Amino acid sequence: xxxxxxxxxxxxxxxxxxxxxxxxxxxxxxxxxxxxxxxxxxxxxxxxxxxxxxxxxxxxxxxxxxxxxxxxxxxxxxxxxxxxxxxxxxxxxxxxxxxxxxxxxxxxxxxxxxxxxxxxxxxxxxxxxxxxxxxxxxxxxxxxxxxxxxxxxxxxxxxxxxxxxxxxxxxxxxxxxxxxxxxxxxxxxxxxxxxxxxxxxxxxxxxxxxxxxxxxxxxxxxxxxxxxxxxxxxxxxxxxxxxxxxxxxxxxxxxxxxxxxxxxxxxxxxxxxxxxxxxxxxxxxxxxxxxxxxxxxxxxxxxxxxxxxxxxxxxxxxxxxxxx
Length: 324
Hints:
Blueprint: H1 6-27, H2 41-51, H3 56-69, H4 73-78, H5 81-87, H6 94-112, H7 125-133, H8 140-149, H9 160-168, H10 174-179, H11 185-188, H12 194-210, H13 215-224, H14 239-246, H15 248-293, H16 296-302, H17 308-321
Helix pairs in contact: 1-12, 1-13, 2-3, 2-6, 2-8, 5-6, 7-8, 9-12
């Protein structure tokens, strides 16, 4: 019997686990979704930008909105990312998808002055794949989706949601996550099963990303790898405790305010007689000023003794009438 080294043993275990993913997800009720063969290469590229980390139905709705609500792809290219995101609001991350769509269209237009990538079908798979990777707005997921759906190559699309599942199943390392690749994936899954496997994995990964603590989804991962329990996302049960600990802090500040207020009240009470004394002194000074100024008014009345003159004239008139 030939000796099998550790590396080949690890690769065989990896292939077995990947094949088990396909088997478990297929029996879990997920249905494969085939790409639309009527779409052009560019349309498959843009649809992949909508499908990344999103459900198939939502991606179809967002892609249809781009085709129905805009005159052509050039109008989509010159539209702002925010406006595109509003048209693609059904996606979980519409701003990211809108940015990918806009950059892909801009890059294709700048390099070819047309919105056409059909020439990639005639090129060899290697150069065509490299041209897709150099397109701004592309990602490992969108490139693999175009290679699989439009160029006839064998490449399983892996987005960040699917990469999270691969991490839980211990099928990737940090370097693989940064590169967006899963070693040995295409070798473990034959080409005639690539579309089906990719669709099943994508649907499960999107569901797991949305509800990572759902018991049914966690059970599927444990069915694939019983040792994956320690790598499953943990619930954040300590958050309420931290909130309770932070609450007394403002109470202490509030407790320190009343003594300051009481002290200020006492000081204000002690200062009240002083404040009231000042108005009294000011009032007395004002009255003294008024008394000092009062003699000036009769002086003005002396200068005009008109009201007293009639009395004197009447008395003089009466005295003159008596002798008569």
